[in-house]
Design goal:
Elements (H helix, E strand, L loop, with lengths): L2 H6 L25 H20 L1 H12 L3 H17 L1 H11 L1 H19 L5 H30 L4 H30 L1 H12 L1 H7 L6 H14 L1 H6 L1 H9 L5 H24 L5 H32 L8 H30 L3 H6 L2 H20 L6 H18 L6 H14 L6 H9 L4 H30 L3 H38 L1
Helix pairs in contact: 2-7, 2-8, 2-10, 3-4, 3-8, 3-16, 4-7, 4-22, 5-6, 5-7, 5-15, 5-22, 6-7, 6-9, 6-10, 7-22, 8-9, 8-18, 14-15, 16-22, 16-23, 18-20, 19-20, 19-23, 21-22, 22-23
GO molecular function: monocarboxylic acid transmembrane transporter activity
Protein name: MOT14 protein
Subcellular location: Membrane
Length: about 525
Amino acid sequence: MYASREDIGYDFGDDSKAGSKPIKPNPNIDGGWAWMIVFSSFLVHILIMGSQMALGVLNMEWLEEFNQSRGLTAWVSSLSMGITLIVGPFIGLFISMCGCRLTAIIGGILNALGWILSAYASSVHYLFLTFGVTAGIGSGMVYLPAVVMVGQYFQKRRALAQGLSTTGTGFGAFLMTALLKYLCTEFGWRNAMFIQGAISLNLCVCGALMRPLSPKDLSEKSVVRGNSEDNQAKALSHSTETIKSNGVPGDEPEKKEEATTEEVLERVQHIEIGGNSGSRRNMYGLRMLKTVSHLTLTVRKGFALWYSSYFGAASLFTNRVFVAFIIWALFAYSSFVIPFIHLPEIVKQYNLSRQDNVFPLTSIIAIVHIFGKVILGIISDLPCISTWNVFLMANFTLVTCILTLPLMQTYVGLAVVCALIGFSSGYFSLMPVVTEDLVGTKHLANAYGIIICANGISALFGPPFAGWIYDITQKYDFSFYIAGLLYMVGIIFLLIQPCIQKKQPRQKSTEEAQV
């Protein structure tokens, strides 16, 4: 599957060198606790992404309750989805400082709080703050660690592992749609949100399962990848060396600082052991100094890595293909979100509610989405298949379905298009893999944070835009056409940049030959 970097034509470079000595791999990488990480990420996708895909049910309840326009009401769902993803870069900073486990546990508490407070909403604007902002930030603090941890624990079967974990979105959309419909019918939408808030506290348990790998294990994983990609590394050694030489500013001084801090901590520990005759006040002071020193060192290292990824000489934005990937993400996600939010309303317009109640169209997307993620993950892990090409083919299929959906006005026609949307959108499981291929494991948290931030902007403005177009034209057709065309623009950017990157080395070699 590593042909993807060669096809893309750019290597951001993992900060590792292939060692000559054989290294004994950690049994938890590609096995052992790694599958618990997949299970934890699977549950996170059910509780967060699955719930957000089922917000069409609550959207109809809010329309009846508050009697506001479709465009304004759709902002509640869009804020929740958008903020979950937009906060990605800032959650990357939290991960660098606090680790994935603590970040996810705090996020689980915030998410549950947002659901519970939303049960007492008196207006749509109240929901903007409680559900859109509070629950959205909490969701983002759990979602990004769940994706990053799977990427850290897997090397050989990354696409399959990400595919299995992200199938939780499909399962969640199917289960949460049925659950919210039942709860709203039996207890009303307010009690339904309260109950969902209690269920969301399980995100804290998922966070607790995210056992961090030691730096030694991460470096061993990078060495394994370096060995498997040796030929590509040689071909792109110039760009890799440039980025390594322009790495985190003050890298050597930071190592010296770390060594100095460790010496201080050892002295403190020595004084703690040998200073029994001293006062207890001094002992507590020394222990406090030790704790503060550890905390300061962790925060400084985390901030340095985060800052260098965005603004340093090794900035992710120097990678042209990665920039094209960001532009694609700005247009892509709304095309997937709009059907989930507005399909229940479209079904009602076409008088297809009876068939949709038997088997909802959103459930068809959700179920096929599960198989799409797993199958595309398995295909991408085949040695003769390029992950990048699978990713592009799935995108082409999805944009075709988005442009075709308004032409279907029967339940069977809509069901077929929704099934294709569900399968092709399985490329979401490949996004972390493609991102890691572009920037390396070390920069994955920050890079994927940027990608989901761009997705969040797309999700934030997509559904309200579709609702606004409906308020003007009384049709959803133009919303799908415009979203599909913008999506196509993003795909064109993905196609153009790799071609430019491949041509540049050839031009350079030609110039050198002439000289």
